[in-house]
Amino acid sequence: MKSDNIEMWNIWNSTSAPNYPHNQVIKYCLKRWPQRGDRESIKVLDLGCGNGVNTWFLAREGFRVSATDISDQGVNAARLRLLADGLSANLRAESAETINELPSSLDLVICVGVLEVVGLEVAHRIMESVHKSLKIGGEAFFLFAGEESYNLGNKTPYHLHGYSEKEVESLGKLFSRALIDKSVSTFDGQKTTHFEWKLLLEK
Predict the structure, then answer these.
(1) Is 132:103 a contact under the CB 8 Å cutoff?
(2) pLDDT of residue 2
(3) Of 127, 136, 194, which is closest to residue 167 (Cα–Cα)?
(4) 3-class DSSP state for residue 130?
(5) What percentage of residues in the chain have a pLDDT greater than 70?
(6) Please, which pLDDT band fits residue 6 given cuts at 50, 70 and 90?
(7) Over 90: is that where the pLDDT of 19 sits?
(8) How high is the pLDDT of residue 5?
(9) CA-CA distances (angstroms) from residue 60 to 5, 25, 86, 101?
(10) Helix-then-strand count for the chain, H and E
(11) What pLDDT is recorded for position 1?
């Protein structure tokens, strides 16, 4: 992500960011680790955490959490969100391509709404960093826009990239297993389509 976009994401994190964790993140994490005691050893990175809604959920549910975002406004908002509920996480302001974790140290990476922002070329570099950071058997869970979604290109100030299925398949080549699912919903009497890919990768 270009550094000249940081201010735009600072503004987004202070005005437009969501206030609740993504329902797909909740479903995945609670199904994958249904017992709270099992989560205490799971080291997870919320990559591109924004204002920390998913970070808050992960910390609240007992995971060992780190979280990063290119927006220092987002990181500060995440810190305040955690403090308000007596929760903690290792928070850092850094780009999604830069994962300052030890190699093979993470059990899980959660990444929501980032790949459509950075585009395909940077997304591949993110996959390299994620792969390097995960333990053998570790998983990465990505949610991002598909090519038929309503909010792509110049339709918003964020110039999002919607991924084709072929592009999604290319993102998983480094990993031992890749599960690709999609969620498509309509609103405004089916005039508008929201298309989101769900990509689960295992090292």
Answers:
(1) yes
(2) 43
(3) 127
(4) helix
(5) 96
(6) confident
(7) no
(8) 76
(9) 31, 13, 9, 22
(10) 8, 7
(11) 43
Q: Tell me which residue of 199, 185, 203 sits closest to 25, measured CA to CA.
A: 199
- Measured CA to CA, the distance from residue 193 to residue 184 in angstroms comes to 7
What is the pLDDT at residue 157?
Answer: 77
> What gap in Å lies between CA 180 and CA 165, rounded to an integer?
9
Distance of CA 31 to the CA centre of its chain: 18
**Phi-psi group of 69: left, alpha or beta (phi > 0 → left; psi -120 to 50 → alpha; rest → beta):** beta
* Beta sheet of 90-93, edge-to-edge order: 90-93, 64-69, 43-47, 106-112, 134-145, 192-202, 177-187
Helix (H) or strand (E) holding 118: helix 115-118
Residue 24 to residues 92, 177, 194, Cα–Cα distance (Å) = 24, 19, 14
Residue 50 phi, psi dihedral angles, 5° rounding: 60, -130
Give the separation between CA 67 and CA 93, rounded to whole angstroms: 9
Query: HSE (CB half, 13 Å, CA atoms) of 151?
Result: 13
